[in-house]
Design a protein that fits this description.
Length: about 250
């Protein structure tokens, strides 16, 4: 990433981003919790892209160079925490489940960033407790370093409905299936089918944020039927794509 902006203190605030709007690469000396009250949030570093719908938040450790992108109209909430205050003990970006209580705490804490009252300090203490209880979620698309792996990933991401096997994709890029299978495991820590599902889910979230019908999303993202897509989506995010659409518009 170029032209990296450095902001010593991570801001605590709420702001709206239009669909497709970006916050360019920057870093803070503080940790930051990034949450989308509506829309879908993507946080990108050199290591990959973490994505979060409305029942997920992203933990960004102090010093991490990262950029934001909005999918759909994004109600963005940022909570800064000092570098010596790491309730999660995490040193890499991580997607966290957001319970209804944690959601309300984040919304309330970012409502008035200039409030320095004892009540707001107690609110932060409860927020930190809830963070520690938040399960981590593997919602990440890693960035490939090996050019052979990058070529295959680019084909899949250009057309999520592409149903070609790894062997067929390898033949199209001049790389053997066994080599690619090894690269997926060594670089990403997952198999090709696992990575492709993550890629399709990310693409599906982006389409849902644009109010694309569920059946259309299913077919564009490579699922054989809407019911198969709904099943995978529910297991990954804890709710159906239809419910997600209402959440993306700010519903509860």
């Amino acid at each position: 990433m170029s032209k990296i902006r450095h902001t010593p203190t991570a801001p605590t605030r709420a702001k709206f981003l239009a669909a497709g709007e970006r916050i360019d690469a920057h870093r803070h000396d503080d940790h930051q919790i990034v949450y989308a009250g509506s829309g879908v949030l993507a946080v990108t570093t050199d290591a990959g892209t973490w994505f979060a719908p409305g029942n997920r938040a992203i933990w960004v450790p102090a010093g991490t160079v990262h950029a934001h992108r909005a999918h759909g109209h994004l109600d963005l909430h940022l909570v800064g925490m000092p570098a010596d205050d790491n309730p999660l003990g995490l040193d890499a970006p991580t997607v966290l489940a957001v319970s209804p209580l944690l959601r309300e705490l984040i919304l309330a804490y970012t409502r008035d960033p200039d409030d320095d009252s004892p009540e707001r300090h107690r609110l932060l203490a409860v927020l930190r407790d809830q963070l520690r209880a938040s399960p981590q979620q593997p919602l990440r698309l890693p960035t490939p370093a090996d050019p052979r792996l990058a070529a295959v990933c680019a084909l899949v991401q250009a057309d999520p409905a592409d149903a070609r096997t790894l062997a067929a994709l390898g033949a199209a890029t001049g790389v053997g299936e066994r080599t690619l299978s090894r690269l997926f495991r060594s670089e990403f820590g997952m198999t090709f089918p696992q990575w492709r599902t993550q890629s399709r889910l990310y693409h599906a979230l982006r389409l849902l944020a644009e109010d694309t019908p569920v059946t259309t999303v299913a077919h564009r993202c490579g699922w054989a039927s809407a019911s198969a897509f709904i099943d995978v989506f529910r297991r990954s995010f804890g709710h159906t794509p239809g419910t997600h659409g209402r959440r993306a518009q700010g519903g509860r």
